[in-house]
Amino acid sequence: MFSAHEKLKVRNQKVNLDIDFAQKQLSGNTQLEILQKKIDQVITLHARQVHVKSVSVNGVAARYHLVHNTPLDKICPSAHDNHRETRDLLNFTISYRRAYEKADKGELYIEIPASDPSGNPLVPKEPGENETGANDTSIGIWKVDIKFSIKNPRGGVIFAGGLPGDVPSHCYTDGQIDSARMWFPCWDRLDVSYPLEVRVSVPDGNIVLCSLPEVETRVKKGKVRSTFMSQEGFNLPVRSLAMAAGPFIRLPDPGMSQRIVHYCLPHVNAEQRLAFSTQYVSRSVELLEQMLDSRLPKEPYKQVFVSSPPQDIDSRPSLTIASSSLLFDPSNLFRTFETVRKLVHALVSQWFGIHSWLRPDTWQDTWLLLGLGRHVTNLILKKHFGNAFYLHHIWEETAYVCQADGATVKPLFHDAPSHPSEYLGEFKARKAALVIRLIEKRIGEANLKKVLGHLLSKTCRGPEYISTKRFFKAVRKCSGQDIESHLSHWIFGTGCTTMTANFNLNKKRNQIEIAMRVSNEQMRSKCKLDSVTIRVHETEVTYDRTVKMEADEFLVDEFAHQSKWKKTKKEKEAEREGEDEIIAEIVERNDTPLLWIRVDPELHWIRKVEMTQTDYMWIYQLYKDRDVIAQMEAIDGLCKHFIKPTVGPDGEIQQRSEYIKSLVVRVLVATLENSQ
C-alpha cells in the first residue's frame, strides 16, 4: 500500500487563496483528504515560511507544530557550536545534501485528536468499496483543514512592481524545484501526484493564470475569483503547479487564436513587442506536432511575461512564465535567435520535461528529459533558421562541453545522493542534448522519431514515467540496434576525448599516412567497438575513411590517394580560372593531390580535434568547403598560423594575413546567404 519512503497518501487537495498586492500577502486555507495508517497519530506535511493560523482534523481542532528553522537555514556548523568551521566546497556540499534530506521530510506536524469536543473517540473514515485501500482495515481517511497566510515571501511566490515609475503590481511563482511548499501546505514530492483544485481571488482588473485547466472565473464585490482543477486521470505533482496574477494584456496568437494565448504587462508598445517576439510560436507548434505526431498536450497554451523572474523561462503544463526582458521590437533583430530559442524550448518542455506528461522515473533519469527537450528544440530551430545555424550551434555546444567536462564533474547518470538542482544544471542539459544527437546519428532520424512517438503514445492515458533503461529498450525495439554500450561513457562516465591528428604525404608510395592520438583512456576502453570517420579532400575526389577505435592510444591509417600527382599546364590554368588571388597562388605553388583533411566531420563524437595542416590546406578548407563547421575549424587553424608565422618576411606575412581575414569575412557572408 505504502512504499518505504511514504508516510501518507493524499487523495485530493483544495486550495483557496486571496492575493493582496499592496501588502504582498497571500492568505487562505487548504483542505486535504489524507490516507494514512490508523496507528500513526501524527500527520506530516510540507509547509515552509507559512504562518499557520489553525488546523482541524475531521472538523476537530488539532494541535500542530510548525518547524520554522529548517536544516537549510544553517547548513554548516559554526565555530561556537564546538565544531571546526568548514569552508571547503566538498564538506559544504555534503552538509547541504544532508540538510536538504532532513528538510524534505516535512515541516508541519499535526497531532490527530483522540476525541471530539463531546468526548467521543475520533475515528477516520473508511475507504469506499472502489477506493484505494478498500480492503485494508489498517488504513483510514482524515480530512485536514489548514488556515494560513504568507506575508513578504522570501521564495516560492514573488511580488514585483508597484513602485512609482515601475510596472504594475503582479506576482508569480518563482520556479524553484520545491516551491509549492513555500506558498501553501501540501505533500510536495516529485513522484507523488493527486487531484488539485485551486481558487484564487484578486482585485478587479487583474487576471489569474495557472498550470491547471481553468473551470470558471467570476467577478463579485470588486474581486475576481478564478477556479482551476485537475482533469480526471491527469494529475500533477504539486511542485509542477505554477501561477501568475496581475493586470496582464491578453493577445491570442494570430496563427492559433484558440490554442495559444500570450500575456504581458502594460507598457509602451506592449502589444507590438509581444506580437513580434512570439511570432515563431504557432509555427513551432505546427512543426512539433508534425515531427512528434502528437498534439500539444494541454490547451490552451499560455505564455506570460513578468518582471525580473529568477530565470528567463519556467515551463509548466500549459503555462510558461517568462521574463519580460525577452520581449523586443523589430529594431533589435540581434535578440531574435536567443528569444526564439528560449520560447521554443519552453514549448518543447510541454512534451519533454520534469513537469511534462513524460516525466523522469527518478532524479537520475532527469538527463534524458533534458536532452530530449534540447535536441528537439535544436531541430525546430534548424527548420526556422537553416542548417548552417544549426551546425554552428552544435559546434559551439561541443566546444563548451569539452571544455567544461572533467574529472570533478559528475556523469549525466549517477547514484550519488544530490540536491535535485544538481541534476538540472546548464552543463548537464547541454551535454545531454549532444548525447541524444549521438543516438540519432547512430540509429537514424526516422528511427528516433519512432522512439519519441512510442514514448509519447503512452501519455494519452495519463502521465508516463520514463527511465534510462526503458528508453534504451525502446531504442532497441524501434531501431533494432543496441547502442547503449557505444554511449556508456558519455552517460555514465566523465571527460571528453581530444583527437590529435597529423598526416604525411608519401610521394614514393603515392600514399597518405594519417596518425591520430586519442587522449581519453576511459573512453577508448568503453568505446572500442566504435569508429572514427576521416574525410579526405583531394583535387579530383572526396571520400571518407573509417578507422576502428582500438584500445591502443595511437591509431594509424595508410591508403593510396586517388588523384593524380602532377597536372598538365592546361589543367592548372583551368583550376586557377575565376579563383581568388590567393587561391590561384596556392594552386601554382602547391602541386599536390591532397587539399585538406577533416577528422569526425559529422560530429559523431563529443570531442576536441587538433588537426595539424599547412596554412594553404586551411585556406583551401575555408574557401572550398561549404560546411560551416569546416569553416570554423579552418578559422581556428589559420589563427594558429597568424600567431606564430614561420615563413617569409614579416611584411609579406602581415599582408597575406590581412588578405586571409578579408577572405574569411567574404566566405562567411556567402555561407549565410546560401544557407538552407
UniProtKB/TrEMBL annotation:
Domain Peptidase M1 membrane alanine aminopeptidase, first and last residues per copy: 316-490
N-terminal signal peptide: none
Keyword Transcription regulation attributed: yes
One MF term in the entry's GO annotations: metallopeptidase activity
Localization in the cell: Nucleus
One Pfam assignment: Peptidase_M1
Protein name in the entry: Transcription initiation factor TFIID subunit 2
Organism name: Hanusia phi
